Amino acid sequence: MKEYAAGMSWGEGPRCHRGALWLSDTQGGKLWTDHDGPWRGIPLDAVPNGLWFLPDGRLTGAMMHERRIGVWTGERFATYADLSAVATGPLGDMVGDPHGNLYVDDVGFAAHAGEPPRPGRLVRVAADGSVRVATEDVEFPNGLALVDDGRTLLVAETTRQRLTAFTVAADGALTDRRTYADLAHLVGAHARPDGIWPAQDGVWVATTTGHAVALVRENELVTSVDTGALLPIACCGDGGNRLFVTLADTQGLPLGEAMAAKAVHTKVALLEATKEGDAG
Fold first, then answer.
1. What does the alpha-carbon distance between residue 226 and residue 279 come to, in Å, rounded to a whole number?
2. What whole-number distance in Å separates Cα of residue 149 and Cα of residue 276?
3. For the residues of 89-129, what is the DSSP string, one character each?
4. Ranges for the SMP-30/Gluconolactonase/LRE-like region domain (predicted)?
5. Is the four-CA dihedral 26, 38, 54, 205 of positive or negative sign?
6. d(Cα 151, Cα 254) in Å, to the nearest integer?
7. Integer distance in angstroms from the first to the last C-alpha of the chain?
8. Which run of H or E residues covers position 190?
9. What is the per-residue pLDDT across 56-115, written as a single tens digit (0 to 9) for each?
10. Predicted TM-score (pTM) of this structure
C-alpha cells in the first residue's frame, strides 16, 4: 500500500468522483477532498457519515446525528431528505443506485453516548424523496454495497462479523435475508467489517480490528492484504484497478480507549489490485 493523504481523525465514506477523492472525518468534523487541488479538510457544523454521489453529480451525506440526508452546497449540507420519522439512532454508511435511490444505515443506538446495543435498520430514500424502512433487525449495520447489477444489497453487520445479503425487490424493499460471508471464519476471529466496496471479483471489506482488507466472494476468501498495526476503516474504488483505504493509527491503544482519548489519526492508502488475487 502507498500512502495517499493524511490529516484525518476518523475517515469514513470515501468516494471517488471525477478524478477526486472525498471522505468524511466523523470525529474531526470535516469533509476532506482534493477536488480543487491540494488535499484539504472543510470544517463542518454538522458532519455526515456515509457519502454518495447522485446520478446528477450532487454529493449527498448521511448526517450522522441529525437523522437527515444532506446535499452539499459547496459550504454545508442542506437538507435533501428528512429521516426523523423513521430513524431511531445515528446514521451510518450510504449507497445509491443509478436511478437515484439511496439506502442508508440507521445504526439504532449511539455507542459513543453509552447507549445499550439494539438492532438497527436500513432505510430507503427514493429518487422522488419518499422515505421508508427497507428492512428491520440489522445488528450494527455498517458498510453497504449494491452488487449483481443492483439486484442484491450487502450490508456489513459489524458486531455479527459478517456480510449479510438481501434481494432488492421491484419496489425497493429488501427480502430474502442470507449470510454472504462470515468474516470471523474467512479472515479471523478479530475481523469486524466496517466499510465495503464491490469489485469485479467480489467485495472488498475493511475489517478494522482484523488488521486486513479482504476481498471476498460468497462464502469464499479471494485474497487479503495485511495492514500491520493500522486498522482499515473504509474503502472505495476509482472505477479502475485502484482501491483507496482509510487506515487508523491508534498509537498502540485499544480502539475504544484511543477514540475516547482522541488519539486516533487516519490516513488514506492506495492499493493496486491488478487482477483477481493479485494486490500490492
1. 11
2. 20
3. S-EEEEEE-TTS-EEEEE--S-GGGTPPP--EEEEEE-TTS
4. 10-248
5. negative
6. 38
7. 6
8. none
9. 999 999 999 999 999 999 999 999 999 999 999 999 999 999 999 999 999 987 766 677
10. 0.94
